[in-house]
UniProtKB/TrEMBL annotation:
Signal peptide: none
UniProt key word Membrane: yes
Keywords: Membrane, Transmembrane, Transmembrane helix
Protein name per UniProt: Rhodopsin domain-containing protein
Family named by the database record: Belongs to the SAT4 family.
Source organism of this protein record: Cladonia borealis
PANTHER family registered for this protein in UniProt: MEMBRANE PROTEIN PTH11-LIKE, PUTATIVE-RELATED, PTH11-LIKE INTEGRAL MEMBRANE PROTEIN (AFU_ORTHOLOGUE AFUA_5G11245)
CC annotations in GO: membrane
Membrane topology: Multi-pass membrane protein
Highest taxon above the source species: Eukaryota
């Protein structure tokens, strides 16, 4: 019977076990499956919020998020496949033939798929900023610079993993303590640049929110929505620290198990956090007050009607019609119609109105997307047949 050679030498006093080795891969599989299901549900809720519950208009940020989810599914499949060949098992319990012919290639595919799918998460966030905030040219250039940074960094990371690992895998020798991630430099570099991207992207909306004329309670709430991604950044920092600590380890399959599981948690948290600011219509749809203040329209979908300001206060705007100021003047008089400039449709009412007023102060509103807020005065020219049920109006106090 041919003798099986292990991929690594066991520590003193430890016996190689190819039959029933210590294996933590089930934890990694469970983590991926559970978080993938949650992420898929969150992305589905985002799409529902942007279609069925609003105006059936998907933006570039939504398309990028769908691509990110597809990339995440591929990443998860690679990770789960790698567990079949030793990930989560001590290297001395993995046959050398399995390690060289299967494990090295699947771990490379996993590390390459992560930045590729993560790239689309960052794109989705940046596209969302462009859609929500009517930015001045200077701020738009910052967004474009972040686009460039993410594009260069993530794709360089993708091709670096493939290129470096292919070269080292082909020349792999049993005398080498670990594979192409042995010294941790590549993974540390990827993690460090990833953390920089997180900080830059998460910090961008902070000054814009702080400048809004709203209470500090509302600012804290808004910041908490935009900064949900901090959780992913914290996991990224922990992963970098772990990689540095694990440098020089001879137990490659177990060390990389910890790195990969942190990769997975970070990736899923980032994907979920990127969807949070867009889920307002979906959360509102789940509220009992939504059904209390709703009716069926001719198409069978639910559309909101409001009997009191409090009910509307918790409802997020629904865009219907884009009109010029001339069209508005023909249909009825509106107080300060040029101050209705607003492109946002996913944020709460009080944020939407504040953004509208901030933009009005800068004379940014000439062609408007109209929204129906409870603040409009009851007027025969603004409701019913003359304006139409699908024309929604935003007014100041």
């Amino acid at each position: 019977m041919e003798q099986v050679i292990s991929a690594g030498a066991p520590p003193a006093g430890v016996v190689t076990n190819f039959v029933d080795p210590v294996n933590y891969s089930s934890n990694l599989v469970t983590c991926n499956v559970v978080l993938l299901v949650v992420s898929s549900l969150v992305v589905a809720a985002r799409i529902i919020s942007r279609t069925v519950l609003t105006d059936w208009r998907l933006g570039w940020d939504d398309h990028a998020m769908v691509l990110a989810l597809i990339g995440t599914v591929i990443f998860s499949a690679f990770v789960i496949k790698t567990t079949h060949y030793g990930l989560g098992t001590h290297i001395w319990d993995v046959p050398l033939a399995t390690y060289k012919s299967h494990y090295l290639w699947w771990i490379m595919a996993s590390f390459a798929a992560c930045p590729a799918s993560y790239y689309f998460v960052k794109l989705s966030i940046l596209f969302f900023y462009l859609r929500v905030f009517n930015l001045q040219a200077k701020l738009r250039y910052i967004i474009y610079a972040l686009f460039t940074y993410c594009t260069i960094y993530y794709w360089v990371a993708f091709f670096s993993v493939i290129g470096l690992c292919n070269v080292k895998n082909k020349t792999w020798d049993i005398t080498v303590s670990m594979n192409c991630f042995a010294n941790g430099k590549l993974v540390s570099a990827i993690g460090g640049l990833d953390l920089v991207a997180d900080v830059l992207i998460l910090a961008f909306p902070v000054p814009l929110v702080i400048q809004l004329q709203i209470s500090w309670t509302q600012r804290v709430y808004l910041l908490s929505v935009f900064l949900c991604g901090i959780s992913a950044s914290v996991v990224c920092a922990i992963r970098i620290a772990f990689v540095i600590q694990a440098r020089g380890s001879t137990d490659a399959t177990m060390a990389q198990y910890h790195v990969v599981i942190l990769f997975c948690i970070e990736h899923y948290l980032a994907l979920i956090a990127a969807c949070m600011p867009t889920l307002g219509p979906f959360f509102n749809w789940l509220r009992p007050s939504y059904w209390k203040h709703s009716h069926r329209n001719a198409l069978g979908f639910r559309s909101n009607t409001y009997d009191d300001a409090e009910a509307f206060q918790h409802t997020w705007p629904r865009p219907h019609t884009i009109m010029s100021l001339d069209d508005i003047s023909k249909r009825g008089s509106i107080e300060d119609p040029d101050k209705a400039a607003l492109k946002n449709m996913d944020l709460p009412y009080w944020l939407a109105s504040q953004l509208c007023r901030e933009q009005s102060a800068r004379n940014l509103g000439n062609v408007t997307r109209l929204y129906n807020f409870e603040e409009r005065e009851e007027s025969p020219n603004l409701a019913g047949e003359e304006v139409g049920e699908d024309v929604l109006v935003l007014q100041r106090d």
